[in-house]
Design brief:
The chain is of the alpha+beta class. It has five domains: 108 residues, Immunoglobulins (Immunoglobulin-like); 193 residues, Sandwich (Jelly Rolls); 122 residues, Galactose-binding domain-like (Jelly Rolls, Sandwich); 325 residues, Glycosyltransferase, CATH 1.50.10; 99 residues, Maltose phosphorylase, domain 3. It is built from 18 helices and 44 strands. Strands 18, 19, 23, 24, 25, 26, 29, 30, 31 and 32 form a ten-stranded mixed β-sheet that branches. Strands 33, 36, 37, 38, 39, 40, 41, 42, 43 and 44 form a ten-stranded mixed β-sheet that branches. A hairpin with a 4-residue loop joins strand 34 and strand 35. It starts with 5 loop residues before the first helix and ends in a 5-residue tail after the last strand.
Length: 904
């Protein structure tokens, strides 16, 4: 209730200052998390905007959205498609469109104005827009075409068509789905900067199409549109442990595309894929997502994508069957090359063998630039370790691929020179995980300039930043970000080399740090649909990884992994105010929780994966599985409530209460205040998941701290416990001990990884497996939440209310963090200087916050050098809780300080 009264108190506190404050302004308009997106196919796009004001505690009390079918109508303030009028509401994010039905290909122009806390209206925002894609199957005029239907054909196909324009084009859109991957060209130029497009899905359930504005690529006269196709995940030709070569959707590369034109004479035209297209083999002689790509430049057909090319020798394309899945728009950020890395070192461990070190482990591929005789075959072998002899060692990451067929190559590209001067080449349809590239077969000596590294991942915007006075912590933070992006390839993956699989455990464990650092919301929303597509109708179970060829149901299942289906929608709700992720999947979530209830015994789940990759002490799966069962029931209750199913919400609340009671009956030892086998994971799991009854919380937390101390302040968990442990210690007054764990420079621990030369996070504490994993990445979220103190409030999701609760630990003297919330930027920083602890925070209009100021001495709380007395200058209230002073604030920037005694 106190939080609900904050705004009223703040408004009263700053009343005398109102007249001097400039009016509120509106900008940052987004539709489905994007700026002016093309090709949406959701019937009710969500609109969001941000507010700006120099006045503290400013809020929105009403809004008006106008949506028009033309720029002219919008400029005249005519919302002919939707005019909300003034709505008394503080909602400024996730506002669902409620206007006239949306139509395929139509552009919608919109703007918004708001009323502030005093009832004053802002100016309308600058206009924004969104454009719909093709909403119904009947909207597609093209046919699926291919070069052939042989899944064993090695060469990537080329497809092209010419057409003539006698009238200038005023608007041109391409809608394209090329499976597995495509590259689109018009009149000799590649369109867009996407790579590895479209995103991987279960193609027999759905396939994604992409929309491009190609107006400027066309001209009067003869034009050529051309496409090259790759296998991707649609036609995996490499035998590997996970069976994608036997996927039920497997088929040869195929294409559906249409070019829709609006002409200056008022007419429209469509250039679809059909039998008028022609096809040939490309110079890409082989491409496979696990193996690599081979290109023979002698087979290039210069000008193949231009109107002047002679395609008389090409054959007509075949009309082929469509994939079984439905077509949907790709609404997430595309995979792109976001950075080019130069090697830091080149060695020659053997004659003719050159090894490039990029100084950083990452996902992507190498760009080769060199000259030599035609027919020279250059081989590039990728890896993240070096053997004792200095060559690339793939042993730890290749075993699950080459074990099935020793003749197969793994992460190896080949380029055969065409002999026409300096040539530059990079693969189109594969990516690798690596720090080192071994180059053989090259003519003459190589230098650092012959190879560059292309960092490839879903091009999500940066959303958060963190820095501190401790270089080790900053190195861990940087390594975690490299691992996160390297494992975001249209879905969250476990590793960019060995598997590239959407393991659900890895994904949910790293989701909070991902959302605090990047705007990956749309990627997660897409992947949740992938999981839903895998849910089995007979059992309501989901696999341990998604998409899967079927193998994902054979190993790795269980609540500790499967709960990504519930946890990630909940995180999107908590961090982005996204209710749709929970409500749109509610039936699937409900059915999954019901399946857990059927599979439980006395409300205990005694199956599933345990705390994977533990340091030394194993924790039985029944503890962690049952704890996730409890959380799943709570999330199902929340989803039911948001979806308007109050009776079912009560049902799942009651289920959660039953599971909690059963958990404590089964695992709690009241004589020792311990759980299960007393491992760090058992104790921290019970605390973190909210299963410890309040009278016993302090004793259990004390036992956990003792267990950590007995282990020399080292972590002794696997990937599950690595998320629980720092948070559980921090929530129970031992952030100092969590700090000791994180900064240990001896094994095991994150600090030891950095001391051992890591620049990404590893799969196992001892470094024996993959060295680019993200399952241990939640520690980055701990940096933000515990060290900087930047926390969402689950009661007011999307950072409508922020909880600032920093912890001063170790030798830290300052910390900074920021986060780009849906409402606008949130910033916080603290520093200890001249005997004072200063905490600076900033939150955007239309939000509030609670600030917890740690105290270790006596003295007044000051704000910008003045004592805080009552509700002054945007501070709505002040109280004391334990060793903290707690303040409620409205929007604006604040600088709080308290006396601080060093080394106390």
């Amino acid at each position: 209730m106190r939080k609900l009264l904050v705004l009223a108190a703040l408004a009263a506190a700053i009343g005398p200052l109102r007249a001097a404050v400039p009016p509120i302004t509106v900008d940052g308009l987004r539709c489905e998390y994007q700026v002016n997106p093309l090709g949406l196919d959701t019937p009710q796009p969500r609109l969001s905007w941000q507010l700006h004001s120099s006045e503290r505690a400013q809020t929105q009390t009403g809004y008006q959205v106008l949506v028009a079918g033309s720029r002219e109508n919008l400029a005249a303030n005519i919302g002919d498609l939707w005019d909300t009028g003034r709505l008394d509401s503080d909602q400024s994010i996730q506002v669902e469109y409620q206007g006239r039905p949306l139509r395929s290909g139509q552009t919608y122009f919109w703007k918004v104005r708001v009323w502030d806390k005093d009832g004053k209206v802002s100016r309308f925002s600058d206009p924004a827009s969104w454009e719909m894609g093709l909403l119904e199957p009947a909207d597609w005029r093209g046919h699926w075409i291919a070069r052939d239907t042989d899944t064993n054909e090695a060469a990537a196909p080329l497809l092209r068509r010419e057409f003539r324009l006698d009238t200038p084009v005023t608007q041109a859109r391409v809608y394209i789905c090329g499976l597995g991957y495509y590259e689109l060209h018009i009149n000799g130029k590649k369109i867009g900067d996407h790579v590895l497009d479209p995103g991987f899905t279960r193609y027999d359930k759905r396939a994604l199409y992409v929309t491009y504005d190609v107006t400027q690529a066309l001209h009067p006269g003869t034009n050529a549109v051309a496409v090259i196709l790759g296998n991707g995940w649609h036609n995996v030709q490499t035998r590997a442990f996970w069976g994608f070569d036997r996927a039920p959707w497997r088929a040869a590369p195929k294409l559906l595309m249409e070019l829709r034109l609006r002409l200056a004479n008022g007419r429209t035209a469509v250039v679809p894929t059909d039998e008028r297209w022609k096809t040939s083999r490309s110079a890409i002689t082989f491409n496979s997502i696990y193996s690599g790509e081979s290109c023979d430049a002698r087979l290039e057909q210069p000008g193949w994508d231009t109107a002047s090319f002679d395609d008389a020798s090409w054959t007509p394309a075949q009309i082929v069957s469509a994939p079984a899945g439905r077509l949907e728009a790709q609404a997430m950020p595309a995979i792109k090359i976001t950075e080019t890395l130069n090697p830091v070192q080149i060695t020659q461990p053997k004659p003719g063998v050159y090894v490039y070190d990029f100084g950083q482990n990452f996902a992507g591929f190498a760009r080769l630039t060199l000259a030599g005789p035609a027919g020279t075959r250059v081989t590039m072998k990728y890896g993240e370790r070096l053997a004792a002899d200095g060559t690339v060692d793939q042993t730890a990451i290749a075993k699950y691929v080459v074990a099935l067929d020793a003749a197969q190559e793994f992460q190896t590209d080949h380029y055969t020179l065409g002999g026409h001067g300096t040539e530059s080449w990079q693969p189109r349809f594969v990516y690798h995980g690596f720090q080192y590239v071994e180059v053989t077969g090259a003519p003459g000596p190589l230098t650092l300039t012959n190879l560059a590294g292309c960092f490839v991942h879903s091009a999500v915007a940066e959303a958060g930043r963190f820095s501190s006075s401790d270089p080790l912590i900053d190195r861990i933070w940087t390594a975690g970000r490299w691992s996160y992006l390297s494992n975001l390839e249209g879905l969250p993956t476990d590793s960019p080399h060995r598997e590239k699989n959407g393991w659900m455990g890895d994904a949910h464990l790293a989701a909070e740090q991902g959302l605090l650092n990047y705007d990956a919301t749309a990627v997660y929303e897409k992947w949740l649909v992938d999981i839903a597509d895998e849910q089995r109708p007979d059992s309501s179970r989901v696999p341990g990884l998604a998409p899967t060829s079927g193998w994902g149901f054979q190993w790795g299942n269980g609540p500790a992994w499967d709960s990504a289906f519930l946890l990630i929608p909940y995180y999107l709700y908590e961090y982005r105010g996204d209710t749709r992720a929970l409500t749109s999947h509610y039936e699937g979530l409900r059915e999954y929780v019901d399946s857990l209830e059927r599979g439980s015994k006395d409300d205990i789940i005694d199956w599933g994966r345990n705390d994977w990759d533990s340091a030394a002490t194993d924790t039985p799966a029944d503890i962690t599985s049952t704890a996730y069962y409890y959380q799943d029931a709570l999330i199902a209750a929340k989803a039911a409530e948001l979806a308007g199913h109050r009776g079912e919400a009560r049902k799942y609340q009651a289920l959660a209460a039953r599971v909690k009671s059963a958990f404590n009956r089964k695992f709690f030892h009241p004589d020792t205040s311990s759980y299960g086998n007393g491992s760090q994971t058992s104790l921290s799991c019970a605390l973190y998941q909210g299963l410890v009854e309040e009278p016993f919380r302090a004793a259990v937390a004390s036992n956990l701290a003792a267990r950590v101390s007995q282990n020399g302040e080292h972590i002794d968990t696997g990937i599950l416990g690595a998320k629980y442990l720092p948070a559980a210690l921090t929530e129970n007054g031992r952030a100092d001990l969590a700090w000791d764990i994180v900064t240990q420079r001896t094994a095991p621990g994150w600090g030891w990884w950095m001391e051992s030369g890591a620049n990404t996070l590893w799969e196992q504490w001892d470094g024996s497996g993959s060295r680019n994993h993200i399952a241990f990445g939640d520690i980055l979220a701990w940096f933000d939440k515990a060290l900087a103190g930047l926390n969402p409030d689950p009661e007011f999701p999307g950072f409508k209310h922020t909880i600032f609760k920093p912890h001063v630990v170790g030798g830290l003297t300052w910390v900074k963090a920021s986060y780009d919330s849906m409402y606008g930027p949130i910033q916080c920083s603290w520093a200890i200087k001249n005997g004072r602890f200063t905490y600076e925070v900033s939150i955007p209009p239309n939000t509030t916050a609670t600030v917890w100021l740690p105290r270790n001495g006596e003295g007044a709380v000051e704000e910008s050098g003045h004592p805080v007395i009552g509700g002054v200058g945007g501070v709505g209230g002040m109280a004391t809780q334990g060793q903290c002073t707690v303040l409620d604030i409205g929007s604006g920037s604040y600088s709080f300080s308290v006396p601080w005694v060093l080394n106390k």
